[in-house]
Amino acid sequence: MLEPANTLPTKNGAPEKACCKNGTTDLAQVNAALKREIAERKLIEEALRQSEERFRQFITSISDHIYVTRITAAGERANLYISPNVEKLTGYPRQNFVDDWSYWASNVIHPDDRPIAAHQAATLARGENSETEYRVIRANGQEIWVRDSARVETYQPTSQNLMVYGVVSDITGRKLAEIENTALHTQTKRRARALEILNKAGQTITSTLDLNTVLEQVLHQVQMLFEAEGASILLYNPVRNKLVFEAVSAEDADLFLGKALYPTEGIAGWVLQNKKPAISANARQDYRFLQESLTNVAKHSQATQVQVTLGISDSTVNLSVKDNGEGFSQSVDQAFSNQLSGIGLLGMRERLELLGGWLDVDSRPGEGTCITAHLPLEAC
Q1: Is there a domain that residue 47 lies in?
Q2: Which of 170, 204, 219 is the last residue of a domain?
Q3: CATH assignment at residue 131
Q4: Per residue in 43-81, pLDDT tens?
Q5: Structural domain containing residue 310
Q6: Residue 180 domain-assigned?
Q7: Are residues 236 and 162 in the same domain?
Q8: Are residues 126 and 151 in the same domain?
């Protein structure tokens, strides 16, 4: 009787021993392969650990802040990576930015520059790279300039998600130098223009003997120099000891031409006595103050006379409006806060304080009111 082909011989037969020997050899080979694989995996893990350590050292060795942000097809954003340098740059804990993508935009970016950052965010959401500059406010209140450079890539070939890889660099030193250079350039251009205008004025003086022509041309050049809406020239008459308006460029010029001031009167008199210029960059506010004061007098004071006085001290230009009206019995603080009375003193005071000036009020029932605006002079 024949045995089936797949039947092993008895345990005393040679074929069984060969089978056992082969099985032992295979098991040893598998064990050896596993050991090699484990050893290789350990080597890979160690290499990865060393690589991560080198990356961490690299990131912490530079001052720039690096971030990775995911933008979904629905427009949702999440920070996948925030470098530790964000703490050095902003002074805020890194975890604040990890937990909330909007923390940078809502708490760090300067309020005036948030539209710039919002435009960049919209550009990135369209899949376009972007680089922009804006200001941020550190946790200690310090304001610095940064450059935000971002590159966009598709998260996966079949995905609509976007990955944004960005670097934020502190450019405060360079930006401040640029601002200073721009201011210096502007100042240089203004000085060049001033010299050109003064040269033209000098040529006018030497080209004619007619005083009226000289005064008219000089007045025109000076008005251009200061970009003023109006200007006037007063000449000192030592015989009469008076200052006389000889040339006026204004709508109401006829009211001033030929009029005289004593050297103790007005700004021109102060300049003559002190032999130095009086410059107020915010003199236009005096005119607004005068308009509002006269309007208040007409509406509320029941006055029959109004006296307007323009004076100057060593540090301020002072404009007073005094009437003989009813006055008021309120305290000054009450008068400032009482907008219903129509006096409107609070608005005047706030505008003057923004310019470094102040407002004085003196009023008594039946004795009228005197309001004086003080504006600072520029140092000369």
Answers
A1: no
A2: 170
A3: 3.30.450.20
A4: 777 777 766 666 565 555 567 899 999 999 888 999 999
A5: 283-376
A6: no
A7: no
A8: yes
CATH value at residue 351 = 3.30.565.10
Residue 213 pLDDT greater than 60, yes or no: yes
Gap between the Cα atoms of 162 and 369, Å rounded: 69
Residue 10 lies inside a defined structural domain of this protein: no
Domain boundary among 106, 137, 170: 170
Check whether residue 165 and residue 68 sit in a common domain: yes
Band of pLDDT at residue 350, cut at 50, 70 and 90? confident
Q: Tell me what pLDDT residue 156 has.
A: 65
Residues 192 and 158 in one domain: no
CATH no. for residue 249?
Answer: 3.30.450.40
Per-residue pLDDT tens over the stretch 254-308 = 777 888 877 777 777 777 777 777 766 666 666 677 777 777 777 777 888 888 8
Given this model, what pLDDT does residue 18 score?
A: 53
| Percentage of the chain exceeding pLDDT 90 | 24
* pLDDT above 80: residue 4: no
Please count the structural domains in the chain.
3
Reported as a single tens digit per residue, the pLDDT across 217-260 is 778 777 777 777 778 888 888 888 888 888 888 777 777 788 88
